[in-house]
Amino acid sequence: MAIADFLGNYEGTQVDRLSARSLFPAIHAAYGIGMLLAAGLSSYFIGRHVGLTAHYFGTAVVVAGASIWAALNFPNSVRTESRAATQTPETQTPETQTPETRQLARSVWTERRTQLIALIGFTFIMAEMSAGTWMPIALTNSGFSQAAAAAAFSLFWIVVTLGRMVGGAIVDAIGRSQTILLSALVTIVGISLFMASGSVTMTYVGLILWGFGIAAGFPMSVNSMGDDPVMAPYRINMIITMVYIASITVGPALGAVGQQFGIYVAFGIPLVFLIISAIISPVTKHQQPATSQ
């Protein structure tokens, strides 16, 4: 999954870079569509009393079939660039890696622009993970039934998916860095309303804004790493690494804060990071490929 995650984001940024319109948010919408379909199918099979073993086996068959079909049908285009220039960190072998490529892979971790964009990407994943892990729990603790909390979480992901489907049009209209700024501000408002709301209506308004806000934030952060096609694989590899760090750390960190001060207070952590991301969002403006920082 990690390799597929990297390759999907890397290839997606290259397709987006060559396209006249912004396509990358819509590519990420496929993740939300898959998640919603999986949730619906899971509910159906649970209702039919299908065992977990059969469920996992069926999932494996579907994933294997889709992967084989995609691999056989992807265009096998021949590019003019050298093989070394087009290989990604994941596809390079010890024989094809050179001191130069290893140096490039290390150098991105010290680039100021890359570090700041990675922080923005980390922040949006933190906001997404905190919703995925703790939003349903926070809702049930505040009086929602489990069914109502599950419905609210489903609504959240529907909004995220719809936001990504229209995200490309927003990017085309106002630009990438302004989209990230807008995403951060909308998410800030959404989380703030969710934390402070005393009514069911405002809770739903907050989670809708939260979902719409994060929709294009991470995709456009990854997209910002792909301006230079030579450095893109190394920079995207870095931000994907940050994603998995966020996946490991965000849940326990918010849980620890939630135990001490309450889960709604814990949502203040991504809120602070989002404010920082809004301030530094100009760093995601388009960079000419020849520029290196």
UniProtKB/TrEMBL annotation:
Residue ranges of the region described as Disordered: 81-105
GO molecular function list: transmembrane transporter activity
The keyword NADP is assigned to this record: no
Chain ranges passing through the membrane: 26-47, 53-74, 116-135, 147-167, 179-196, 202-222, 234-255, 261-283
Biased composition (Low complexity): 86-101
Stored PROSITE patterns: MFS
Annotated ranges, domain Major facilitator superfamily (MFS) profile: 113-293
Any one GO cellular component localisation term in the record: membrane
Main localization of the protein described in the UniProt heading: membrane
Cross-referenced Pfam families: MFS_1
Keyword Transmembrane helix: yes
Location of the protein in the cell: Membrane
Membrane topology label: Multi-pass membrane protein
InterPro entries xrefs: MFS, MFS_dom, MFS_trans_sf, MFS_Transporter
Keywords from the UniProt entry: Membrane, Transmembrane, Transmembrane helix
PANTHER family reported for this sequence: BYPASS OF STOP CODON PROTEIN 6 (PTHR23514), INNER MEMBRANE PROTEIN YBJJ (PTHR23514:SF13)
Name of the protein: Unannotated protein
